[in-house]
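Title: [Solved] Pilus assembly protein CpaB 3D structure

Original question kept below for reference.
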Amino acid sequence: MRIVFLLVLALGIGLAGFAVYVVSNQFETRDQQLARIQQMQQQAPPPIETVDVIVAAKELSYGDILTANDLKVAVWPAEFQPEGVFDSAAAILEAVDDRIIVLRAIDVNEPITTKKITGFGLDAGVAARLEAGKRAFTIRVDVASGVSGFLTPGDRVDVFWTGRDGRSPVTRLILDGIRLIAVDQTANQDTNRPIIARTITVEATPQEAAILAQAQSSGKLSLSLRGISDTTVGGAVEVSQDDIVGRVAPPPSEPEPEAEPEPEPEPVQRTIRIRRAGELSIVPAD
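Solution (posted by the thread starter after getting help):
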């Protein structure tokens, strides 16, 4: 009996020790997790500073009149807010009588910026797109010269002039990287249908407008479409008929050597012949 009792006692002590060990491990694991959480909280980045930004409450299309129902406030990281945003609807809708027109498509929750809407009281026309100091100038084009069907407002093109420089025909780059603001009578940048243009309207300085007017009246203008990210400067580009057919201009002839001046003729001496008694004598006439 004593042996059985001792065995039961030893087994009980062993089970109790195992239970204490398991519980101790659980407490230790919990303490480690709590320490890890506290460490992560201490290392967490500081809270992000935010600002109120006015965004579109629904999809807006070109030409829509902006109203208060189209706007809502969204929280935006202050460091990454787009340029030209508004912090309140009142900053956009200053007066009831003002009409604000959408210049390009705006998606839901997209910030409203000054570049996407017209100024207060303006229509979504060409005048609203002109920068300060710029003018709108219209160029006549056709299917070939107008980059058939590929031009849309907002594109940039190079303008080539073909005419006569003296007696020989020549094609010359006169303006590069000029911006289109309308194709025919369409100023919508979000149009997705091809337009076979008969006229295009470009944004130009007064000097550039004068160049285009003179070039259009003295020859033919052609357009070359630029890539979206192309900001290179075209430089001087000119092609003549000789460049096309491969004719090489003759080298300049060397100047002939100057002839030596001829010596002046000696003066002729005049004489008089006198015959006396059969003898001939010659004496100077002077």
